[in-house]
Amino acid sequence: MNGITIGQYYNVDSVIHRLDPRVKLFATLVYIVSLFIAKSPAAYVLAFAFLALYIGLSRVSVKYIVRGLKPIVFLLLISVLFNLFLTKGEVVLRIWKLQITREGIVFSAYMGLRLILLIVGASMMTYTTTPNQLTDGLERSFRFLNVIHVPVHEIAMMMSIALRFIPILVEETDKIRKAQMARGADFESGNIIRRVMNMIPLLIPLFISAIRRATDLSMAMEARCYHGGEGRTRLHPLRYHGADRIAYLVILAYLAGMILLRVFGI
Amino acid sequence: MSFIEVDNVIHDYVSETEEGGEVTLRALSGVSFTVQAGEFIAILGHNGSGKSTLAKHINALLTPTEGTVWVDGRDTRAEEELLKIRKTAGMVFQNPDNQIIASIVEEDVAFGPENMGVPEEKMLRRVDEALQTVGMTERRHQSPNRLSGGQKQRVAIAGVLAMRPKCIVLDEATAMLDPKGRQEVLKTVSRLNKEEGITILLITHYMEEVPLADRVIVMDGGQIRMTGTPREIFAQWDLLKELRLTVPQITELGHTLKADGLLSAPCVLTAQELAEEICREHPAARSELQTAAEPETQATARKADEQTSAGQAGPETAADGPENAAGGTVSVSDEKTAPEAADGPSGASGQAAAPEEARDVPVLSLEKVGYAYEAGTTMERWALEDINIDIYAGQFIGLLGHTGSGKSTLIQHLNGLVRPARGRVLYRGEDIHGKDFSLRGLRGKVGLVFQYPEYQLFETDVITDVCFGPKNLGLSAQECTARAQKALQAVGLPEKAWKKSPFELSGGQKRRAAIAGVLAMEPEILILDEPTAGLDPAGREEILGRIAALHREKGITVVLVSHSMEDVARMAQRIIVMDHGHVFMDGPAREIFIRTQELEKVHLGSPQVTYALQALRAQGVPVPPSARTVAEAAGYIRQALGAAKAGEVTA
Q1: Quick one: closest CA in B to A167, which residue?
Q2: B86 and A225 in contact by Cβ < 8 A?
Q3: Number of A–B residue contacts, CB under 8 Å
Q4: Average pLDDT over residues B269-276
Q5: Contacting residues of A for B518, CB less than 8 Å apart
Q6: d(C-alpha B294, C-alpha B389), whole Å
Q7: Contact between chains at A219 and B93 (C-beta distance less than 8 A)
Q8: In the predicted model, what is the mean pLDDT of residues B508-522?
Q9: Same domain for A75 and A27
Q10: pTM check: above 0.95
Q11: Does the model's ipTM exceed the 0.85 cut?
Q12: Of B119, B457, B518, which is closest to A205 when you measure between CB atoms?
């Protein structure tokens, strides 16, 4: 898990960090949609400018963001290469049986750019929002689904509990692994089937522990009067401030710009 | 009507068998008692005595099969009163991690009020107050994962307090904590009881915590067997033993002296009290020689008493502050030892010193070992620095140190689970991280039993699980079974349990099965990380007895990590004290525990019998300054009193 920065919270204080998570959810959604309607170089310039503004205001280090792209470089290369070689059109270069077309170059360049913008844009959400704010934001934003009996509160509660227990379970995994190694278990050698089999002494105690924790936790929650989302109040309820309203306007203006560029084909 | 009324309550757990039938297990069979508002009640009982089931009835997490429970005038079976009962009687559970719901301290404290629908402004005030009361205000924006066990439990208490309860039930809430954490929790609870008048029901396995209570309820087999003040309960030592319980070590010393006819007080609870009683009954025992020299020791003994009975002082804010680094090793070998120690009774432990011929090559040695977490980053923390320890065959070593002192990291170096960043680990003179050295082979020779080892059980039955280790050593199935059987016998697990699923066993049995899993590899050295944590007194004794027998009869070298000074003192010959990643002390048990004040500085202390002797010395009774066991301390006191009597006669 070392060195993976994508999806992690980047702890600084900025205008963006202080925005309501619902605004950032909306921004992410709009940004993804906008990338799919972008066709022209001008549209990409606008999309890039918007992201640059977002990053600039968020005070997240650019180096940190670039590092976050590392795990997906491989994926990026494959999709770019596929598009480069497999797009039909005017051939500009031929290497052995492979051919590169003019359309291929343009298309794969757009493709790569779009993917990078997409991933960076989406990960800005997690860089600037704590997991708890994110869950709160999701709960509030999707509350309308209650009408069709989607248990929005319960799902959000499950998410936040999962987030709380991830570090605990990671630590526990390490402890059980070491304990079984002390009994001579081998997790490192052998072929793939052997290795999977060798995981059993690790996985079973881990599952049992997770179930035990879940039972304990549900009892602790009940003891503290938990009875679902009904009539629940919050310590820090989400509330819009001036900056949030301005942010909504900026996002809408950006979306309008992208649509106009598409409609007029610039 | 009393605040809590439990009237003839029966509780049955009903579970379905594989055949579709039903099995009924009666956990409570006719329990009745009342609690007045503002009382502090301790509930004792061995594992499976029904005390946790009883606790869950107070909070309406369980409702009676028969009988009635009233909490603040409300029947717990009334559906519509449920939430009111739960906010009246809050509950704190055993495992600190499994009861914190939110990822931020203050949000967790707010969880209860949020569920109750408390409006925002009021909620903020309640959270502030609750955090203030438990002394956790500074940590309010932190993740609970960064807190110590004691701090987490204080957050859990704050979570209950924010619901404005009239009563708090602590269901073995101190069982998983280290002594410092227990102290933090108990102080908080005592203060809530005294200052805010909150009714406390404290369920515990630690007899040392009982004197805090106004009244004690002792459970056995789903029934109440004894009730009374702590003093009344602890006076009945024989009955307690029958109920698989015990008394604090200091009380045991009092009882032992009483059996000798040296003390007439029916029950003593503190070292100071014991010393005063003895001096009152034997005024001749005070000799003038000693009185001048010992004001310090007297202060120490007083402090110890305050600790055991968790004084009424404010929250222990100092505990949260940065701990001052106390580097350097204190050598004890040249220290003056009490002359009396040599001709005193030779202790009841009966452990011989390590054989001399084995002394030349240590089995294991750590040479200038250092280890850092997150090495090479800005988060780098040195968990161990410049550790030099030689472990010789046949030794019984007690490893002490508060949580975070580096003990756990240290023992993981001994079987190569962790590779030192600096220095070397040698097994019989060979570097264990050398090229040709088999680490897996070493793990067969150096057995490491982790904390809560029962959490690693995974097989369908006990004996197969115990075979896992030998199987990994590449032994034949026959040899594996033979070794497993031997190991299970050594830990005293009855044969009828061998074919059971490990998850059907009781807590103490599971623990022993897990220890057998390491023993079956037939190690030369057995390292145990707090093997008695979370067990009831009988379970603790059983495990310690088995470990002592392994050392005595099979000559296994033992390294015992423990938080109990009493256990370590009576079992180990050599003590290593860790502090801030350094070896703080290393020497014979008797000499280490004389240094009570230094030990207290690193959040440890001495065994209660040592405090008793030190309190006696402060009163001028000529006894040695430390003892390892109750029998030894009783012997010293007997001798001192005998000498005094003889002196009286000649005069």
Answers
A1: B145
A2: yes
A3: 149
A4: 92
A5: 182-183
A6: 34
A7: yes
A8: 94
A9: yes
A10: no
A11: no
A12: B457
Residue of B nearest to A169 (CA): B97
Structure token digits, residue B204: 């515990």
Q: Which of B154, B157, B117, B118 is nearest to B139 (CA)?
A: B154
Q: Which residues in A lie closer than 8 A to residue B449 (C-beta atoms)?
A: 182
One domain for residues A74 and A152: no
Strands B40-44 and B430-431: unpaired
- Which of the listed CATH numbers 2.60.120.1130, 3.40.50.300, 3.40.50.800, 3.40.50.720 matches domain B352-572? 3.40.50.300
Mark which residues 187-216 of A lie under 8 Å from B by CB: 200-201, 204-205, 208-209, 212-213, 216
Give residue B38's pLDDT: 95
Task: State which residues form the domain around A167.
Answer: 145-223
Residues of B in contact with A205 (CB under 8 A): 455-458
B579-598 in b/e form (b: 16+ CB < 10 A) is: bbbbbbbbbbbbbbbbbbeb
Q: Of the ranges A34-48, A61-75, B278-292, B340-354, which one carries the lowest mean pLDDT score?
A: B340-354
- What is the C-alpha separation between B108 and A224, in angstroms, rounded? 11
Distance CA B594, CA A61 (A): 56
Whether the Cβ atoms of residue B562 and residue B400 lie closer than 8 Å to each other: yes
With beta carbons under 8 A apart, name residues in chain A contacting B95.
Answer: 213, 216
Q: Do B98 and A220 touch (CB under 8 A)?
A: yes
pLDDT tens-place string over residues B109-142: 999 999 999 999 999 999 999 999 999 999 998 8
| Interface contact B472-A183, CB threshold 8 A | yes
Residue A140 lies in a domain: no
Q: Tell me yes or no: is domain B4-246 CATH 3.40.50.300.
A: yes
Same domain membership, residue A124 and residue A23: yes
pLDDT digits (tens, 9 = 90+) for A84-120: 888 777 777 777 777 788 888 888 888 889 999 999 9
Hey, is the C-beta of A145 within 8 angstroms of any chain B C-beta?
Answer: no
Residue B334 CB-density burial (10 A; 0-12 exposed, 13-18 middle, 19+ buried): exposed
**How do beta strands B330-331 and B223-228 pair?**
unpaired
pLDDT surpassing 50 at residue B339: no
For residue B468, which residues of chain A lie inside 8 Å, CB to CB? 180, 183-185, 201
Instruction: State whether A193 and A123 are in the same domain.
Output: no
